Amino acid sequence: MHFIIKASAVAALFTASAAFASGSNHGNIESGKDIYMNGKGDVPACNSCHGQDAMGDDAMGTPRLAGQGYVFIAKQLEDFATDKRMDTTMYVMNVNAKGMSATDRLDVAAYVNSLSTDLNSSDMAQVKELGNPVGVRHLGKSLVMYGATERGISSCYSCHGYNGRGAAPIYPMIGGQKYVYLVSQLKKWRDGSRANDPMGQMQAVAKNMTDEDIQNAATYLTSAPRTTVGNSRVPPDYPEH
Question: What is the per-residue pLDDT across 122-132, written as a single tens digit (0 to 9) for each?
Fold first, then answer.
């Protein structure tokens, strides 16, 4: 049953993604860079919150965007623009996405997708100084790799790939994502304030996670290596730029 549900979700999202991935317009990287660095019209520069290198900021609670995948980022911007995804921080992302044209959103997605996929972990000492509780890394690794099926928690690995390195075009890279953002989004999936996931997959998992589960998983994921122990070779399906 789990396989059937997951396969249906994959098929549905591939269909929905066709609008972004089809045709010759995959976004203009240079135009996207200009918007990201300088803003456009009433839309402020993206780097003012997400950083010059698009690696995110724990102090601001903003996510890493670099190397996240063109289709995924394009979909998130479209969802913000159409209020399918709500930014509860004064609706900043909804306002900004609405201020961009459809072409602008594709251009920004193309630019951030072209950036580095190198690991850039959260500084956990800084995270603690900011007043955030942190988890236990080895317990998080167990959840990421194996889940807790007896409690209805699927492994992150089953959709997001080894150590959360991502499975484009559907599942984003959560390994190396900022800790504060990971925690906030898992809690939003859990309470239903975020609901733009395919077939409700993330909501179904997060609703069974405790605060400790969320903190543990996020603690491991933010610093999860993208290769196996003793193997420095990047897996062939890992995106390189």
Answer: 999 999 999 99
DSSP H stretches of helix in the chain: 2-21, 29-38, 47-50, 70-81, 92-99, 102-113, 124-129, 137-146, 157-160, 179-191, 201-206, 211-221
Comparing CA positions, the residue from 178, 180, 173 lying closest to residue 223 is: 178
pLDDT in tens, 165-200: 999 899 999 999 999 999 999 999 999 999 999 899
Q: What's the one-letter identity of residue 10?
A: V
Return the CATH architecture of domain 124-221.
Orthogonal Bundle (1.10)
CB-based contacts of 56: which residues, under 8 Å, 6+ apart?
A: 50, 62, 63, 64, 65, 177, 178, 181
User: How remote is the C-alpha of 100 from its chain's centroid?
Assistant: 21
* Residue whose C-alpha is closest to residue 176's, from 219, 132, 235, 239: 219
Tell me the β-bridge partners of 160: none
Domain ranges of the chain: 2-113, 124-221
Domain 2-113 annotated CATH 1.10.760.10: yes
